[in-house]
Amino acid sequence: MHIVWWKESVVYQIYPISFKDSDGDGHGDLQGIYEKLDYLTDLGIDVIWICPIYESPGYDNGYDISDYYAIMRKFGTMDDFDRLLEEAHRRGLKIMMDLVLNHTSDEHAWFAESRSSKVNPKRDYYIWRSGKNGQVPNNWESYFGGSVWKHDPETNEYYLHLYSEHQPDLNWNNAQMAEEMYGMVHWWLQKGVDGFRFDAVAHIAKAEGLPSAHNPDNLPVVPAYQLFSNLEQVHSILNKLNDMILKPYGPMTVGETSGLGPEQALAYIGTDRNELNMVFQFEHMFVDAKSSGIGKWNYREWKLTELKEIMSRWQTVLHGRGWNANYMGNHDQPRPVSRFGDDGRYRVRSAQMLATWMLTLEGTPYIYQGEEIGMTNVAFPNIDQYRDIETMNYYRHYIAQGRDKNDIMEAIWKKSRDNARTPMQWDDTEHAGFTEGQPWIQVNDNYTEINVAAAENDPGSVLHYYRKLIAIRKKSKVLIYGEYELLLPDDPDIYAYTRTLGDEKMLIILNFRGNEPEMHWPEGWTENQAKLVIGNVKRRYSTDEGTILLQPYEARVYMMQS
Ligand code: NOJ
């Protein structure tokens, strides 16, 4: 068992534009985060991951960086950042930055130079190609819809963008660009930040020659993930980054890597690899989609058996060989209580059950803002109320193709990233106490009921439960390091597993449904031996035969008494 601080940490993710606005301009800011440090300390978390706060025109809410060395004006100044970092450190909290290495904004000074002429020294910082018979250079589909290529009249060539056209991809074959990036990462480390989440890092290398993807139906564009994800060159870049820049500082690092399973993930995080500490995997985020990537919009009913299979595979394959980053939601995903729980009658209880799941797995837990009060998806009736570039592109694309508007809106209500981006609900005053101005995106109407102030006053709230659970996890070596074993793999409703470390053993039982299933005590466990550590219902039931009778969305965590 290899003990390190980032394995024992609980991370809280802040999407700063929607967290807390301190100056009434309707956008969250650094001062807003500063004002909520007490709240975060009380919650018991250790690390704050802040989504991008760098200078940016904001087409993708900061994931389009125009200056890596400056803070976006709406968020404040570099002095505000320094003050926040200092105060966080004073309280024993760590700060993890979100860095985008795959692309910049099209307003970055490098891109202005790059696009200005074919012979500009920075031309090669980005990926430029001429068209093929008046067509785009290849058939790759962008994550945000349409082709990855954008024609630029200035030099009559195309540049590649895996995301929006405002996010041109960098060319990591250019050694000078790479050096500038390494220097930038170093600059932030010297400032004293404690870690990085590397955005879209799986994609920084593209297949040699940028070949078109297999396209039997001859479509204009097709998903081509395997041609720009997790290629060998990504590993050599990360290895170098770690060796030259990261290692002396020992920051916590997590890479965003879609399109891989745990065996492949070991190439990034294996203890022998010298690359990253953790990766965010995506397999469980597609259990309710017909296919991965852009296929996310096509909903399918999810099955608990499939979710268990995926999570258990990651738990077991990485045990002793790597380390998991566990999450059920973030700024790109729907709200977990709406997706995997019940955001109606059993909202509180199912949010607590899901929290129990995340906080009792092996790996570092990541809590996304609002999860700790059970915030839900939003269903704005009108597309004009949405802000997310991916959502807008999806809407426009399918309206243009003549698809039924109601079907499109249904998909948006389920999967739009704006579900997780409505402002944090602090209290029941206007705009949920998020801003005194006009919020950049509307607050979810349910803020009068679901908000931090109400949760503070209710001992049975999701928030109080999170606080207890985090405290329990932090004290428990078995919950952090213990080996995971799945029970009842075929049960459609119950997710149960044990965690074992030496003589210590925990049993976690989660009912993922609104019904009342029964289960036997697992082998080796009896009711008398099992001491309840935490649960989310007041009274627990057994059947007359002594089996466990679960209530809707019930969660129980037991410790084995010797
Ligand atoms: C992943 C980020 O989480 C997402 O919000 C962003 O749009 C893309 N990468 C592009 O940077």
Would you give an account of this structure?
- Helix content is 27%, strand content 16%.
- The protein is α/β, with parallel strands linked by helices and 562 residues long.
- It has four domains: 5-102 and 175-210 and 227-385 and 419-468, Glycosidases (TIM Barrel, Alpha-Beta Barrel); 109-160, Oligo-1,6-glucosidase, domain 2 (Alpha-Beta Complex); 386-418, no CATH class; 483-560, Sandwich (Immunoglobulin-like).
- Helix 5 (175-191) packs across helix 6 and helix 10 runs parallel beside helix 14.
- It is globular, with a radius of gyration of 24 Å.
- The model has no long low-confidence stretch (mean pLDDT 97).
- The structure holds 1-deoxynojirimycin.
- Residues 60, 63, 100, 163, 199-200, 256, 331-332 line the site of 1-deoxynojirimycin.
- 1-deoxynojirimycin (NOJ) binds next to loops.
- Keywords: Glycosidase, Hydrolase.
- InterPro entries: GH (IPR017853), GH13_cat_dom (IPR006047), Glyco_hydro_b (IPR013780), Malt_amylase-like_C (IPR032091), O16G_dom_2 (IPR045857).
- GO terms for molecular function: alpha-amylase activity.
